[in-house]
Every structure is written in structure tokens, then in C-alpha cells.
Amino acid sequence: MIKVSVIGSGNVAQHLIQAFSKTDDLELVQVFSRNPKSVSTTLATAKIISDFNDLKTVDLIIIAVTDNAIVEVSKQLPFQNQLVVHTSGNLAMESLNDKNRKGVFYPLQTFTKSKEIDFTTIPICLEAQNESDFKTLEMVASSVSDSVSRINSKQRKALHVAAVFVSNFTNHLYQIGFDICKENDLSFDILKPLIQETASKIKKLLPSEAQTGPAKRKDTQTINEHLSFLTNENQKEIYKLLTKSIIDNGKKL
Amino acid sequence: MIKVSVIGSGNVAQHLIQAFSKTDDLELVQVFSRNPKSVSTTLATAKIISDFNDLKTVDLIIIAVTDNAIVEVSKQLPFQNQLVVHTSGNLAMESLNDKNRKGVFYPLQTFTKSKEIDFTTIPICLEAQNESDFKTLEMVASSVSDSVSRINSKQRKALHVAAVFVSNFTNHLYQIGFDICKENDLSFDILKPLIQETASKIKKLLPSEAQTGPAKRKDTQTINEHLSFLTNENQKEIYKLLTKSIIDNGKKL
Prior knowledge:
The structure is a homodimer. The first copy, chain A, is an alpha/beta fold. The first copy, chain A, has helices at about 10-20, 65-75, 130-145, 155-185, 190-205, 205-210, 220-230, 235-250; strands at about 1-5, 25-30, 50, 60-65, 85, 100-105, 125-130, 145-150. In chain A, strands 3-2-1-4-5-6-7-8 form an eight-stranded mixed beta sheet.
């Protein structure tokens, strides 16, 4: 059975640990955490370590820490020629320390500690320096997810940027919707079915097919009325830029 | 039983007609359509008319046509002192012709002809000039939806603007994600679970609690790397503006 250890105790690490605990296809050997309490509920205490020198030899070490800490953690590992991967969407595989074999194990999802998630639906993007290591990663990823892809570092960066648009920026648009509701004594709940349907449409339709609204219709009267209604300069600016982008996009089609 | 007729055959009209056909709480008397073929599949031919003079007296006339045509249609109706409503999120109730009693019946949702939708989950925003007409609208709305609210014209405009942000603009961010995938030989499918989860989080969490990403973390290194990665000036500009907005929003909290 493939032996895996995880370094980290943040959102990604916690969700990985939970997913690994549920499968019989691999053995989760150890979890390194500078803050053992944060992982203790999901794991036997004996498996939790906080000293790199206690790390046992395994088939795969997954560094699931913030981007800024990955280079340093990979340097501190007390062994060499092991398969070591990070979980970052943004960092190149090459950033890992040269003393070990490198790879990437990037689950493309937005993780929130308080919210459970079905790991089997999460796309896992894999990269490795050689085919045998790639096979190991593929086996580990397939044991927890139904969607496993080979993605090189440049493509992974593209996905990470795209994810910022479709997830982080989208959530900020929800924030603006929330703010507009609040200013007008309206419950944000009234927008929630619309938010769900907008996401649901994209399962089957292309974004170009799903696009609706005044910008798509080039309905300048409604656009101008909306701009007069908005008093917040920042909201106005975002409205103008995204409206222009939708209109320009329509011209390309 | 309340008698209702619908004017129009676009997305909103079609979905309303379908919903009304399914309930036994009201009688759908007639549908006016300049293009009878577009509604004929869902309705008995005898009910479809294309001459305003054929309209029978009913309890409620719903004008479900594009914003630009509402004023003219309400003027052409061959009767007076009837309850006449429009379905627009943007137009004031007062825009309807003065010869009839006015109201608004605004279903807050994004409708696509090719996609069925559970009407019971759609919030319906109602407005009327008097309480007795409001009760009629409330009965009609409640017969097809579980979410019925009293919303005045200013609040409705706010909702319409908010809907542009959370739905039309969000879909455009999906479009940008799609474009970035295409440019990098990636399937857009890989972003779909993230899109669904981003929408799903908002059911339980506030947008401020659900916000993640480099802007939220003020991770300027990743932000700069993303900006260097993007070559499309329009995408760059949207990235900058939304990133700034997330950072500024964080300062307010």
C-alpha cells in the first residue's frame, strides 16, 4: 500500500487528511503540524508530529502549506531522493528543493474549514519529474478523487489565474450584491436562487450561451439607469468595466 | 378561481405560462403573442391570441414583454380599471398606462429558454397601488412560488442592479475563465466543480466569510505573478480593479 505523509494543518491539509482517512487504498503515516491541536480531532495523536526529524520514510510527502513557506519547508526535510510534492496552484514544481524528487498535487477547489466537501468531485492536477513518480501520484489522487489530470506548470498557473476570476472575483460580486441589498433594506436571501441558477446553467451551457442582461442586449438605457442608481464610485467603476467587457466580447463572436 | 392572462412569448412569459399551467389555483385564460408558434407547444391553440381586441376580461393581465415595449403594450390594452402588471425588474410601476390599475410581478431569476427551472424556488417581488390588488397578486404568486415578497419600485431597482452583479457579471467571469482555459489547452470542465462550490458556499456563509484568494490575503507576490501571466489587457484591467476592490473591502471590515 502506498504510504503518504502530509505537512501542514491549513484548509487544504485538513481536507486532504480527511479524504485520505476515508480511503483504504493508501496509508496516511504521519501529519506534521506546528499546531498539533488543529489536526488532533481527525487523527490519532501518535501520527501527529511537530519535528521534521520525526518524519518516517514514505512513498510520498505532500507539503500542504502556504505558498510562501513551501520553499523553506522543502529545504528542511531531513532526507533525500524521496518524492516530495506541493499543493499550490501558483508555484512552479521546480521551486521545491533539489535534494528530493519533485511533483505537484494541486486540488482545484476553494476550501473553507467550516464547510465539508465531497472530495471525489475535486479535480486534482498532477505533475512529476518522471513517469514512475507520476504513476504514484495518479494512484494516490485516484483513491480520493474521480477527476485526475496531468497539468504542466504553465497550465497550472493558467488554471490558478482562471480560478481567481471564477471563484474569488465571483464571490466579491456576491459581496457587492450583499452590500446593495443591505443599503436598500433587502434580504440577501432574495438573490440566492439567482446565484445558484447562474452557477447551475454553466454545467450544461457555454458561458456565451448563458450570458443574459442589459450589457448582452446592448440596452444602453437600462445600463445608464443602473449607473445613475449606483452611488458607490467603486461599484460604478466595476459596473462600467464589466459592461464594456461583455459588449466587446459580443463583438468578437 | 383567479383568472389570469399573459401578454408575451419571451423567456419570462414562457416560464410563467408553464408554471401557471401546472397549478390548479388559478385559470390561465389567454396568452397574447405576436408569434403564436412560439407558445403553441405548451398551450391549447384556442387560448393563444394575437389581437389585443380578443382579450377577455380577467382578474389579472401580466405584461411579460421586453422593457422597451411595456409602455406601448399597456397603452394598447382595450379596457380600463383592470389590474395590469409588468414583470420588469427595472421599470417603475408608474410607467404603466394610467387607464388601468397598476402593479408589478417581478420574478427574480435568469431565464434561458432551453433550460427548465423549478419555479417554486424563484423569489417573486410584488407591488400594487392598493391592498386589494396586492392580495390578488399575492395569491397568484403564491400558487407558483414559495418565495413572495413585497418590494417597492426603488428596492426593485436595487435588486435589478444587484442581480446584474451576481448573475450577468458573474457569468462574464465564467467567460473569462473559459477563455483562459482555451488559450492554454485546458478543458473548462476542470473549473466547473469550483464554480459550483463557490455558489454553494454562499447558501450558508456571508460573502465576507466565503472570500478567499490572493487579494483577500493581500498576497502581492501572487497578484503580481498573475498580472504578468495575463496578456489580454481587458482581463488585466478587470483583475486589477476587482483585486483593489477586495483589498479595500477588507479594510472596511
